[in-house]
Amino acid sequence: MQKNTLVMIQSMTGYGKASATFGDKKINVEIKSLNSKAMDLSTRIAPLYREKEIEIRNMVSKSLERGKVDFSLWIEKEASTSAAQINIALAQSYDQQMQKLSEALGWGNYPNEYSMATLLRMPDIMSKDEIIELSEEEWEVVRQVVEEAIAHLVDFRKQEGAALEKKFNEKIDNIERLLKSIEPYETERVTKIRERITDALEKTISVDYDKNRLEQELIYYIEKLDINEEKQRLSNHLNYFRETMASGHGQGKKLGFIAQEMGREINTTGSKSNHAEMQNIVVQMKDELEQIKEQVLNVM
């Protein structure tokens, strides 16, 4: 089978779970992750495995890199083995002492209907056999379960990342399309500006004016409203955003910075537009970009 070498961004949202059996125990690992600026790891680990917490944390941090991560490791035991055991030898000792106590006090009615309940409440009468040392064999099983859960979470992140990448490409394409749709209004805008100024001079102010001087002033005014540089820079940012996505995971912060630069160019275009239709297009571009900014926070 051909190996897939496609590199893609990853989401910080993920879920992974794995389990394995060791003796009479079922070992379970569950990992959840959400977006975060850095690695924020919280753990809940069964007492037997807490001596390995640092190693577990290193495994999780190295593989997941970033995100708010909740890690849980717990044990399930079969009911027959997890039930508390009665310490029969101790119960016999308590029973003999209670018999002697009854005779010494002259109660004369021991044992009675309350004797069993009393015995079961005596200190240490109920005990559970707990393993107090973790064997290398068991730890190897636990380590494999942790690695499997991490792998499942990474796969989940890749799937979410693919969905994000598709969404980003749609939004980038929309901004690119909107940017091109501005062009017809740029020529129209120049004509309208000239007509508005000359109409004001001729009809409203009713004064004679130097047409050559007016043309020079118009050129200066229109140059200040020129958005060719903003359009070119925005186009470059759109391409750079695509290239950065294609470079793989771990690019979330960089994509965020590029999105900020895109916003600057769109805002400047809006402030220079001086045309209703162009301003409407800028509003649409801002809406598309805002959706990118919301989702880019979840990118690794």
TrEMBL record:
UniProt-listed InterPro entries: YicC-like_C, YicC-like_N, YicC/YloC-like
Location of the Endoribonuclease YicC-like N-terminal domain: 9-165
Requisite cofactors: a divalent metal cation
Keyword Hydrolase part of the UniProt annotation: yes
GO molecular function, a single term: RNA endonuclease activity
Stretches assigned to coiled coil: none
Keywords, comma-separated and alphabetical: Endonuclease, Hydrolase, Nuclease
Occurrences of domain Endoribonuclease YicC-like C-terminal (ranges): 183-299
Pfam families the record matches: YicC-like_C, YicC-like_N
Family the entry assigns: Belongs to the YicC/YloC family.
Protein name as annotated: TIGR00255 family protein
Species per Swiss-Prot/TrEMBL record: Phocaeicola massiliensis B84634 = Timone 84634 = DSM 17679 = JCM 13223
